[in-house]
Amino acid sequence: MEGQEHIVMLPFMAQGHLIPFLALARKIQQRTGFTITIASTTLNIQYLSATIASTSNSQLDSNIHLAELSFCSTDYGLPPNAENTEDLPLSKIADLVAASTGLEAPAHRLILDIIAKEGRPPLCIVSDMYFGWAANLANNLSTKELIDFGFKCFKATCRKRVGHTC
């Protein structure tokens, strides 16, 4: 659709981040009609694709696109195909967080492709809090960055219901 806004979402590489980003994308798309692109590594995009297929509302999901960002886990001392926290022992999770900086260049290329196709940058980039590089990316590409701190909702619920911090 000509002139339709576009949002790019960059979830961290964990089911506990991917699924909430998909839910958020669906809510945004439902309320606004914007085009949403969720970008992640190949295996995470396969996971999201299967999730969308099994829970799809085709009218709602038609403007939610998935984009693969190249990532080679072994380049960062991780096991082959370790693209998600579920693929790693707890001792390697921090290494995956550090390795996630390798997604900056492919995300940059993706957004440049969107700009070339649409003639303007996305309305914003919604990034996971672990992607500190996304702020510079948004700034360099003349768009806005929104950071998702989804865990705070759970933490606030714990505080309210249990009476202490989690």
From TrEMBL:
Molecular function in Gene Ontology: UDP-glucosyltransferase activity
Domain Glycosyltransferase N-terminal: 7-158
Keywords: Glycosyltransferase, Transferase
Cross-referenced Pfam families: Glyco_transf_N
InterPro entries: Glyco_transf_N
Family: Belongs to the UDP-glycosyltransferase family.
Record's protein name: Glycosyltransferase N-terminal domain-containing protein
Organism: Prunus armeniaca (Apricot)
Lineage: Eukaryota, Viridiplantae, Streptophyta, Embryophyta, Tracheophyta
